Structures are given as structure tokens and as C-alpha cells.
């Protein structure tokens, strides 16, 4: 008898753009969780408000337990690409690209937990777009077919 083999998947995921003025969120679907290795997004700011800080937070539905901050604030009327990569630190920011703090091994996001953008001083005209991430997806079932192997004692009869 053979059973289907279920392994972890390494997959790129595109996230739909939220409405203008809204934040975005990422939640694992149909799996035990995602190890998010790389995340990128573009924030285009309106001319109305001053500086924004597009942080990322992680919560379990009740408590925020992690916060990741970009290397620099974003001024009004700019389009800045943000990237969160393993081991990225706040030390790197260029004209149109900014790093976001990120865990060295990636971010483990279990089922039921949410990764969200949380922008300080967000304006109703700000727009997130080009949101994508690469994750290792873990199944909700046993990753391999396991056959029971046990030592068996037999007694010889003479």
C-alpha cells in the first residue's frame, strides 16, 4: 500500500494590494505555518502627512509579540521599496530601497498568527503595492509516511 508523500514547499506568494489608505496583512492558509524568508513591498506616500514609519508587526490575534522596523522614515510624496531578508538590519537604506529588520533564519508564522503592516503617521492617501514574499510552507499532516518498525522477539520451537 502506498500513501501520498507530503513535504514542505518553498513557494513565492503574491499578496493583493489593499485599498488606498489601508494596511496589509499576511496569514498562513491551509497549512501548519510559514517560515517567511523574504518579504518585499512598495509604499507610495501622499503629499499630505509628514514622515511615515512602515513597521511590520506579528500577533496571535490578541497580543503583538514582534515588531520589525525599517532603516529609515519615509517622507511625503515618495515611492520606497522595502525588503525584509534573513539577517537584514536597519543599517541599509538607499534612495529608493530600505531594509527592514528581519530574523536571521526568517520569520516563523504559525497558523492563526498574522504578519501586518503598521504604519506610524499613515495618511488616507498612502498606498501599499507590489507585496510579495517567499516562504517555506509546512503541512498540517505528517511530512513523511512512517511505517512502524519495532524489534520483534521470536521464539524458536524445536
Overview of the structural elements:
The protein has one domain. Helix content is 0%, strand content 41%. The chain has no helices and ten strands. Strands 1, 3, 6, 7, 8 and 10 form a six-stranded mixed sheet that branches. Strands 2-9-4-5 form a four-stranded antiparallel sheet, with no helix packed on it. Strand 4 and strand 5 (64-68) form a beta hairpin. It is globular, with a radius of gyration of 22 Å. The mean pLDDT is 84.
SSE inventory with pairings:
Layout: E1 9-15, E2 25-26, E3 33-44, E4 53-59, E5 64-68, E6 79-84, E7 97-99, E8 107-110, E9 114-120, E10 127-138
Parallel strand pairs: 6-7
Antiparallel strand pairs: 1-10, 2-9, 3-6, 3-8, 3-10, 4-5, 4-9
Write out key terms for the chains shown.
mainly beta; 41% strand; globular; six-stranded mixed sheet; 158 residues; single chain
> What oligomeric state best describes the polypeptide chains here?
single chain
Strand content: 35-45%
- Principal-axis shape equals globular
Overall pLDDT confidence: 84
Q: Kindly provide the radius of gyration, computed on alpha-carbon positions and rounded to a whole number of angstroms.
A: 22 Å
Helix count, DSSP H or I runs of 4 or more residues = 0
Give the low-confidence spans: none
Distance between the amino and carboxyl termini: 35 Å
Largest β sheet strand count, sense and barrel closure: 6 strands, mixed
